[in-house]
Write a structure and sequence with these properties.
Helix content is about 20%, strand content about 40%. The protein has five helices and 13 strands. A hairpin with a 6-residue loop joins strand 5 and strand 6. With about 220 residues, the chain is an alpha+beta fold. It has two domains: about 90 residues, Ribosomal Protein L25, Chain P, CATH 2.40.240; about 120 residues, Ribosomal protein L25, C-terminal domain (RNA Polymerase Alpha Subunit, Chain A, domain 2, Beta Complex), CATH 2.170.120.20. Helix 4 packs across helix 5. It starts with a strand and ends in a 12-residue tail after the last helix. The strands form three sheets. It has a six-stranded mixed barrel with strand order 1-3-2-6-5-4. A four-stranded mixed beta sheet has the order 10-7-9-12, with no helix packed on it. Strands 8-13-11 form a three-stranded antiparallel beta sheet, covered by helices on one side. It is elongated and about 60 Å long.
């Protein structure tokens, strides 16, 4: 996993008034959880540039007034209007304790379905995984080479060494769909996953409407 060093200063006081004063000085109030005690500190806002505005997940090397901690960013709050950072929570990590992170997905290979004219529908770009920090990769790779038109990949289909995927097994990750949706197997897969259905069923409804107005469609029971 990539690492990022952050220099911070210990906060002597806490509270809304003190936090407001820190922000006026372009300092972001932060808290470190997970250790023997919570640590309140402040970080210059400019140090968050490479941490916040990046798809990567980092192991943070915190230096708080000379005391060093390993941590990961747990939560971040933004101002609803200006989008300035208001507050950041960090979770301390230890070599022998598992941690939960949202790691980005990296697709590899060339899907045979896409090469045949299909379109990729990616529903998730991160997965929540649990494991030791030493086993956390920069990205979770997914080989899509064997995905054909009508194939869908669910979280339950994925496995990673030394990591437990915490997202629901039946949740959809991605699929390769046809622009005309003529494959019966594709229609059956769409019914099983509501998120994918919202995107792919529109084309099927247009075709059904055309059939209802044609003579051959008279007397045909309406499809559910």
């Amino acid at each position: 996993m990539k690492t990022l060093e952050i220099q911070a200063s210990l906060r002597k006081e806490t509270g809304k008034k003190e936090s407001k004063n820190l922000r006026k000085q372009e300092l972001i109030p932060c808290v470190l959880y997970g250790g023997e005690k919570n640590v309140h500190f402040a970080v210059p806002e400019k140090q968050f540039k490479n941490l916040v505005f990046s798809p990567d997940v980092f192991l943070i090397k915190l230096d708080i007034g000379g005391e060093k901690f390993d941590a990961v960013m747990q939560d971040i709050q933004f101002h609803p209007v200006s989008d300035h950072i208001l507050h950041v929570d960090f979770a301390q990590v230890f070599p022998d304790k598992k941690v939960t992170l949202n790691l980005p997905l990296q697709l590899t290979g060339s899907s045979v379905g896409i090469l045949a004219g299909g379109k990729l529908r990616q529903r998730r770009r991160y997965l929540k995984v649990n494991g030791l920090i030493e086993h956390m990769p920069d990205q979770l790779e997914i080989d899509i080479s064997n995905l054909e038109i009508g194939d869908f990949l669910k979280i339950g289909d994925l496995e990673y060494d030394n990591l437990e995927v915490l997202d629901p097994p039946r949740a959809m990750v991605m699929g390769v769909v046809s622009s005309r949706l003529v494959a019966k197997g594709l229609r059956e897969a769409v019914v099983e996953e509501e998120e994918v259905e919202e995107e792919v069923i529109e084309g099927a409804e247009d075709e059904a409407a055309d059939e209802e107005t044609s003579p051959a469609a008279e007397g045909t029971p309406e499809k559910e």
